[in-house]
Amino acid sequence: MEESRIKKYPHFDAPLTKAEAKALVADPKKVSHHPFYPFLLWVQRWSRFAKKGEQPTEKKRKIRCAARRDSYIFSHYRKMLYHKYESELHNLALQDCVLAYRHILVPGRKSGKCNIHFAAEAFQLIRKLGDCWVIALDIEEFFENLEHEQIKRNWSRLLGKRDYDTKHPLPMDHFAVFRAVTHYSWIERDAAYKTLGLIGEALDANGRKRIKYLVSKKDFPIQICKPHDFHEKLDGMIKSNCNTWGVPQGSPISDVLANLYMIDFDAKLNAQVSSYSGKYFRYSDDILIVIPGSDTRWNQILEFVNESLKSTAPRLKIKDKKTQVYSYKKISDGADQIATNIGPTEGADGLEYLGFRYDGKRIFLRNSTFSGFRRRIAKVSERMAKNHVLFNPNLSLKELIDSFNYNVLFKKFGRVGEFEFAGSEYTKWTFWTYIQRSIRILGTMSSPILRQINDYKSFARKRVRNAIEKDYYRLRHQ
Fold first, then answer.
1. pLDDT for 91-122, tens place per residue?
2. C-alpha separations of 360 from 46, 143, 374, 400 in Å
3. Which end of the chain is more exposed for a tag (fewer CB within 10 A), N or C?
4. Which pTM value belongs to this model?
5. What is the β-pairing status of strands 39-47 and 185-188?
6. How far apart are CA 322 and CA 477, in angstroms?
7. Lowest mean pLDDT among 26-35, 72-81, 134-143, 388-397
8. How many Cα neighbours within 13 Å face the side chain of 115?
């Protein structure tokens, strides 16, 4: 029996079997001549955390999805590069410094560590040192500024070519993959869907025109168009990266290329920080430096970081407004510490790292993480309230509010009051799974996370009431 077809997400090419995928990626000649499709691009949008009285700003992240055959090729070559990259990390003693996009095992288990483990280990290190100072840095527009020539040079280096040959830097199949992920092209997903008749204008329940999916989920095509339709209808929509820098965030190979790109920077920073008996960590574009003691050499470290970026990755820059420098002092009667923001920018009450905040005593969800959770609650609450008003046009405002089924709403978020996570009931809501794992991994110091989220019911009720009132009066004044 033929193997089941895989990679069932909508894209330009048809699904293929595992056998077909393996035959493609195992043949360097086929890869060398493979015609790569454009990526499908969509934009993730969310509001940044804003302090009271401030206007929230929108954050965007461009995600590009590769066609099925392209994705298998990228994944296959990623695997080849990943094993060689891991060997290089060990040769340079960087295996404990580079954290993201690697399978680092949890001791005694087969599962890999995630950002929660790395945050926990960083905070535990700070507590263990007692007196120390910490620098947290963010690299600006990381994937968008990786220079192609350096990617090619380091790629060649992994393949054992220590003497870089500009004319023949990579084997033909590797070069084809390199070209596809650097001189890449893309088509905006929603524009393609609209051209192909998959989305378009339709009337909503209020009789207003909205851009909606015109094909039901179960009938949505896995191959969104045939090759002749692609060339006839979509060719003119293709956009290309004409720069000599940038790789698409979301491609299966971009993560290992980003790590590979930074390998000389990582080596420099680790050597410098180690000379201070400190620890250096990089999680993708997040850098953390922990130095024992109580002196104020942080300015020297910041200068060294900027100098190292100029010499090893000149297009990359540090986001100055997100730079944090904290001094931690041990309190004499226990393991707790006093955290002091010592510059150069104002920060929250404690170091923020990988979604969490450590104030010297306890660990909290970072403000932006918690605000994201509240936005999700608000979105679901308002949608359910709107539907409640639409489906009950004869009820009064009081009757609408009183008859709303809050239990159905609350079940979507789990029993937060008791914070019970029995069985798989809550795994469908990824935020609760994340909270559960966070508390388990971070331990007793994470108890404030419970207090941060225990007001979700009153918050949801308020959102529902406001949404019901808004839609009730709007519908009656149409």
1. 999 999 999 999 999 988 888 999 999 999 99
2. 30, 33, 26, 47
3. N
4. 0.83
5. parallel
6. 47
7. 388-397
8. 16
With 70 as the cut, is the pLDDT of residue 423 above it?
no
The CA distance from 309 to 108, in Å, is 37
Query: Do strands 239-240 and 209-213 pair parallel, antiparallel, or not at all (unpaired)?
Result: unpaired
Q: Which residues of 328-346 are buried (b: 16+ CB within 10 A; e: fewer)?
A: bebeeeeebbebebeeeee
Candidate ranges 236-240, 334-338, 385-389; pick with highest mean pLDDT: 236-240
The Cα 326–Cα 249 span in angstroms is 31
Instruction: Please give the single-letter amino acid code of residue 247.
Output: V
CA 199/CA 458 separation, integer angstroms: 37
One-letter-per-residue 3-state SS of the chain: CCCCEECCCCECCCCEEHHHHHHHHCCHHHHHCCCCCCEEEEEEEEECCCCCCCCCCEEEEEEEECCHHHHHHHHHHHHHHHHHHHHHHHHCCCCCCECCCCCCECCCCCCECCHHHHHHHHHHHHHHHCCEEEEEEEEECCHHHCEHHHHHHHHHHHCCCCCCCCCCCCCHHHHHHHHHHHCCEEEEHHHHHHHCCCEEEEECCCCCEEEEECCCHHHCCCECCCHHHHHHHHHHHCEECCCCECCCCCCCCHHHHHHHHCHHHHHHHHHHHHHCCCEEEEECCEEEEEEECCCCCHHHHHHHHHHHHHHHCCCCEECHHHCEEEEEEECCCCCCEEEEECCCCCCCCCEEECCEEECCCCEEECHHHHHHHHHHHHHHHHHHHHHHHHHCCCCCHHHHHHHCCHHHHHHCCCCCCCCCCCCCCCCCCHHHHHHHHHHHHHHHHHCHHHHHHCCHHHHHHHHHHHHHHHHHHHHHCC
pLDDT of residue 428: 44
